[in-house]
TrEMBL record:
Keyword Acetylation: no
InterPro entries for this protein: CB, DNA_brk_join_enz, Int_N, Integrase_recombinase_N, Tyrosine_recombinase_XerCD
Protein name per Swiss-Prot or TrEMBL: Core-binding (CB) domain-containing protein
GO molecular function: DNA binding
Domain Core-binding (CB): 56-137
UniProt entry tagged with the keyword DNA-binding: yes
Gene Ontology BP term (one): DNA integration
Length: 267
């Protein structure tokens, strides 16, 4: 150790690299404590990672995240990423990564709640942030720890399902154009959410998924259809050759469903 301008400095050489750093104190005992902590960080390999984290900013991390990771996910997920990034950037901006602690992330969460942000939206933002930090650790080697892991997620209200009555179904169908009627009938049979329904492709056979996963009812399968579409490409042939469409099924809704449903009647 040596003194410069009234402050104690440490000089440590490890793996051929010399580290010189001010302890920011004129007290020798405190300076020795700082030196001991620095030596521990060097031995555990945290010091150089910390330096990288002190150079990289939140904006750099998210720019790389959107460039490298976002293209690998679905279009719907990219839309959610864009919305979450807007909220995150407004709070963290150009903050260096080493400053984004669990405490700071919790402050972000509280700020979102105060601004009226809902639990699902806040949790999506935290999940995106956690994924970005994991990439920093596992692939980019910018950091050693993920500060999001210590932050609790918001409790979400699961809500309750409400089923349409037969009279409500009839009134909706009577007042809908033919193209929309077909979609409504399909949704009545499956219970798909809007984004799930409108993003269906011929390559996804929901009934085949139901058998593969051992689901007791087809409505359960529709919630999981997007998880394994790659393994069900042959479903297109079954759908196209089924000989059924939603119009012919409409009058038999209470009866047994055909094996597959053709949303557009072969068009």
């Amino acid at each position: 150790m040596f003194k410069r301008d009234g402050k104690w400095w440490v000089s440590i050489t490890i793996q051929g690299k010399r580290i010189r750093r001010s302890t920011e104190t004129s007290n020798l005992e405190l300076a020795k404590a700082v030196e001991a902590k620095l030596r521990t960080e060097l031995i555990e390999g945290k010091y150089f990672d910390k330096c990288e984290g002190e150079r990289r900013t939140f904006r750099e991390m998210m720019d790389r995240f959107m460039e490298e990771h976002a293209p690998k996910v679905s279009e719907n997920m990219r839309v959610l990423y864009t919305a979450s990034l807007k909220h995150l950037s407004g709070f963290f901006g150009d903050m260096v990564l080493s400053e984004i602690t669990s405490k700071k992330i919790n402050e972000y969460k509280q700020a979102r709640k105060k601004a009226g942000g809902g639990a699902p939206s806040i949790n999506r933002s935290l999940s995106m942030l956690s994924k970005a930090f994991n990439l920093c650790i596992k692939e980019w080697e910018w950091l050693k720890e993920n500060p999001v892991l210590k932050v609790a997620r918001e409790k979400e209200n699961k809500g309750r399902d409400r089923w349409l009555t037969g009279d409500e179904e009839e009134r909706i169908l009577i007042n809908s154009p033919q193209w929309l009627k077909e979609i409504i009938i399909f949704d009545l049979h499956t219970g798909l959410r809007q984004d799930e329904l409108l993003s269906l492709q011929w390559s996804v056979d929901i009934y085949k998924i139901s058998k593969l996963l051992g689901h007791a009812h087809i409505s359960m399968s529709t919630r999981h259809a997007h998880h394994c579409p790659e393994s069900l490409r042959d479903g297109v042939n079954i759908l196209e050759n089924s000989g059924h469409d939603l119009v012919t099924v409409e009058g038999n809704r209470i009866c047994q469903l055909p094996e597959t449903l053709d949303l557009y009647g072969g068009r």
